[in-house]
Write a structure and sequence with these properties.
Number of helices: 2
Order of helices and strands: HH
Distance between the termini: 80 Å
Number of strands: 0
Radius of gyration: 26 Å
Structural class: mainly alpha
Protein name: Aerotolerance regulator N-terminal domain-containing protein
Organism: Cellulomonas composti
């Protein structure tokens, strides 16, 4: 069992490190996504000032 852990532990660490490096290089989690719709204040500016 110890021999198995000695072989598997470095492989798990290496795989996790590669995953972290790939995600950081891709930019995931570092950029703010664009809003899905315009802000409420932008939509209010185009309303008429009088009632219909």
């Amino acid at each position: 069992m110890t021999f198995f852990l000695i072989l598997v532990a470095p492989a798990v660490v290496w795989t996790a490190a590669r995953l972290v490096i790939t995600i950081r290089r891709d930019g995931l989690g570092t950029r703010v996504p664009p809003p899905s719709r315009p802000a409420w204040s932008d939509a209010v500016q185009h309303l008429p000032s009088h009632r219909f």
